[in-house]
């Protein structure tokens, strides 16, 4: 309480849905991701690109994410457009031990 705590805030960028007034949701994820990477090159430390792992061993990736204390993972099909809401093309698996998952369960 005596000293103010140093807090750094940043934004994780996961996807690019619009660019310069153009709706990007119909573009494949791989194209949106490539454009997002290019867009964020000069953004500074206040905006961070979400990590991306390619591979077939989703179980190993999930275990690693949980060990790191992350909220979970989202598996996406690279060739599919963005769709709001639930989709069989994007699957989110939450880490049951993550603070965010615990808050939802306790509510």
SSE diagram, text form:
Elements: E1 11-13, E2 18-19, E3 22-23, H1 29-40, E4 47-49, H2 58-67, E5 72-76, E6 90-94, H3 99-106
Protein architecture, described:
With 107 residues, the chain is of the alpha+beta class. It has 2 domains: 9-52, no CATH class; 56-107, no CATH class. 28% of the residues lie in helices and 19% in strands. The chain has 3 helices and 6 strands. The protein has helices at residues 29-40, 58-67, 99-106, and strands at residues 11-13, 18-19, 22-23, 47-49, 72-76, 90-94. Strands 1-4 form a two-stranded parallel sheet. Strands 2-3 form a two-stranded antiparallel sheet. β2 (18-19) and β3 (22-23) form a beta hairpin. It is globular.
Q: What's the number of structural domains?
A: 2
Number of helices: 3
Order of helices and strands: EEEHEHEEH
**Mean pLDDT level:** 82
Low-confidence region ranges: none
What is the first-to-last residue Cα distance? 28 Å
User: How many β-strands, per DSSP?
Assistant: 6
Largest sheet: 2 strands, parallel
Globally, the shape reads globular
Report the portion of residues in β strands: 15-25%
Main-sheet strand order equals 1-4
| Radius of gyration, CA atoms, in whole angstroms | 16 Å
Task: Write out key terms for the chains shown.
single chain; 107 residues; alpha+beta; 6 strands
Brief summary of the model shown:
The protein is α+β, with helices and mostly antiparallel strands and 107 residues long.
